[in-house]
Amino acid sequence: MRRQATLHFSGGGADKKRYSFTYEPRVRLCLAGRGAIFRSMAHLGHATGYEVALISPDTEDLAATQHLSTQAPIHLTSFDKALDLSGLDQRTTFLTLLHDHDWEPHLLLKAVRTSAGFIGSLGSRCTHAMRCETLFGLGASKADISRLKGPIGLVGSLRDASVIAVSALAEINLTFPSQLAEVHIASSDGSEDRLAQTV
Question: Does residue 186 share a domain with residue 92?
Fold first, then answer.
């Protein structure tokens, strides 16, 4: 299980202050998809410094991107394959990047029942409305469905896979702006300053 960590140290010489830096785990980008957008998101996420995890029904896509993943890629073989998503935590983004939306419902139903910090999918607003209706029919609650972002990306109606990936990652960055959560400086008189809180 990934956890927040805090580093404490004291200044040397005339510096009598104590410093504490709190770090969050790296953002994990868990991608479930296939095709050009899936590959572009994997490459861009890796280049940006995210931990990348890959899930796909397409063996060619997995072969082309597995070197970018921090864990063994998962090959989906059926729509309702028993897939454990319990490891999705608050510093994890889960995205479905599929144009054949038959794969999505069971994946998203599991994802919304985790503590994942961002859950999103491709598609138009109309597609997203149908997606939510399908999930509701599968037993998802209104609270579950409200966690879904769709369509993902800060800019809509894009066609190029690389540009869609940039747009989606920009939205994700708004959710996870920094790995450095807090900086505290304690003086010898007992006073304490918090210099930054970016998450």
Answer: no
Tell me whether the omega of the peptide bond preceding residue 73 falls within 30 degrees of 0, making it cis: no
What pLDDT shows up at residue 80? 64
- Name the domain count of the chain: 2
Cα radius of gyration (the chain): 20
Task: Check residue 27 and report its DSSP letter.
Answer: P
Q: What is the pTM of this model?
A: 0.84
Domain containing 10 equals 5-23+179-197
The tens digit of pLDDT for each residue in 93-128 reads 999 998 777 889 999 999 999 999 999 998 889 999
